[in-house]
């Protein structure tokens, strides 16, 4: 997806922002465009406060002079603006390609609204082509993986531990100190059913199915921006 389209979606999200808002700040390259633009608006006098969803976003927002808070200080947020890996029917999402799904889901759950920003390539008729990120506790990983493999094996598919980029084959470590399994389902015809099964899997901390969170999606195309509602 082109940077110009990410930027266009990020710009259009400001239609949802009002002075004084308490914002959840997402993670990923599209969310980073939004945070960058927010920094410029804050420098020009916009008064908002943000809760970042990752160490990366914390560092970016801090460098831009955006006032930050925590969910301990500010447990109720007005709006989260975040990217997504897939946007399906009813604005059901797959998130977590950037590894921040746990904090992203906690922040989204603390927000009255969630605006997803993306380019049109992220919209799909059915979720599942993008491997579903599942955050797991390192303790007992082999045992948790077996339970996850049983879930996906019925479909003849795979669940792989995400590794850090680079020559060493160390597991990718989330901000919460967990690991991520990427599960290739190819098709997720019933996201609610899968979410319930994953919620009940011991060792799973959280998964990247965001169902019922997004209140709008701003989708950028070459010829403009479309706002989708659930
Ligand atoms: C991070 C996420 C991101 O929002 C998602 O991966 C989309 O990222 P990008 O905007 O770089 O395509 O869920 O955990």
- Let me know the largest β-sheet: 6 strands, mixed
Cα distance spanning the termini: 23 Å
Mean pLDDT, nearest integer?
95
| CATH fold descriptor of the largest domain | Rossmann fold
Radius of gyration over C-alpha positions, nearest whole angstrom: 17 Å
Task: Return the string of H and E elements.
Answer: HEHEHEEEHEEHEEHEEEE
| Strand order in the largest sheet | 2-1-3-6-12-13
Gross CATH architecture of the largest domain: 3-Layer(aba) Sandwich
Which ligands are bound? ribulose-5-phosphate
Helix content: 25-40%
Kindly estimate the percentage of residues that lie in beta strands according to DSSP: 25-35%
Quantity of strands, as a count: 13
State the helix count. Answer: 6
Total number of distinct structural domains: 2
Description of the structure:
With 230 residues, the protein is of the alpha/beta class. The chain has two domains: 3-123 and 211-223, Rossmann fold (3-Layer(aba) Sandwich), CATH 3.40.50.1360; 132-205, 2-Layer Sandwich (Alpha-Beta Plaits), CATH 3.30.70.260. 28% of the residues lie in helices and 26% in strands. The protein has six helices and 13 strands. It has helices at 3-12, 29-43, 55-63, 101-109, 141-153, 191-199, and strands at 22-25, 49-52, 77-82, 86-87, 93-94, 111-119, 132-136, 158-161, 179-184, 204-207, 209-210, 216-221, 224-228. A six-stranded mixed sheet has the order 2-1-3-6-12-13. A four-stranded antiparallel sheet has the order 8-9-7-10. The chain has a three-stranded antiparallel sheet with strand order 4-5-11, with no helix packed on it. Helix 2 (29-43) links the parallel strand 1 (22-25) and strand 2 (49-52). It is globular and about 55 Å long. The two termini are 23 Å apart. The model has no long low-confidence stretch (mean pLDDT 95). Bound molecules: ribulose-5-phosphate. Ribulose-5-phosphate (5RP) binds at residues 26-31, 82-85, 95-101, 104. The site of ribulose-5-phosphate (5RP) has 18 residues, from helix 2 and helix 4.
